[in-house]
Amino acid sequence: xxxxxxxxxxxxxxxxxxxxxxxxxxxxxxxxxxxxxxxxxxxxxxxxxxxxxxxxxxxxxxxxxxxxxxxxxxxxxxxxxxxxxxxxxxxxxxxxxxxxxxxxxxxxxxxxxxxxxxxxxxxxxxxxxxxxxxxxxxxxxxxxxxxxxxxxxxxxxxxxxxxxxxxxxxxxxxxxxxxxxxxxxxxxxxxxxxxxxxxxxxxxxxxxxxxxxxxxxxxxxxxxxxxxxxxxxxxxxxxxxxxxx
Length: 245
Known about the structure:
Elements: E1 2-15, E2 35-47, E3 51-62, H1 65-85, E4 90-105, E5 119-133, H2 139-148, E6 153-160, H3 165-189, E7 192-208, E8 210-216, E9 230-244
Antiparallel strand pairs: 1-2, 2-9, 3-5, 3-6, 4-5, 6-8, 7-9
């Protein structure tokens, strides 16, 4: 896992001793001789995803609702059976959505001046199956299998981490290290030293999960999938007390 950090110089604020925070909702820090330095810093960490989620859709039509649904059920059953029999390690397999809707067509009068009320010309059934793959290396194999089994729409994949805590902790450490480094730089420039950390607060956490492709139609075969890395980002606000050397 890689990690990096950066600071936001525009967020640096100075206050002379003793620190005066009367207008802030944050409780005051006990008075001390020195200069209060406020810094906002961001740290990031990256890790390869170990989970992929993909949604496979089946769209069928029929002259009646039951005809469209029966065709859909047949393809959906074939797809579920193929996934289960494939030996590909699947975490979860569940129906994400199921719908049957009429398909309309409008007619015009002979003089084409007014439109008549729409009429039903058939029905469309849609079934979406959400699949969680726990072996990302087999992503291309899974997608090819879904198309062969009858899927005519694929949404995703979305890559994620089964346990995001370790990479989040790395990002937190990187953010704190960035704040300490920046505080030392300011202290050196002022001919001072960092006496102590007054306060640290966690501003935000963001994890970049990636959704890469949407494929429709009858594309069958090996679809190249590149999972890349998941980026986690943490921003902290830190206050340091600077004192003369």
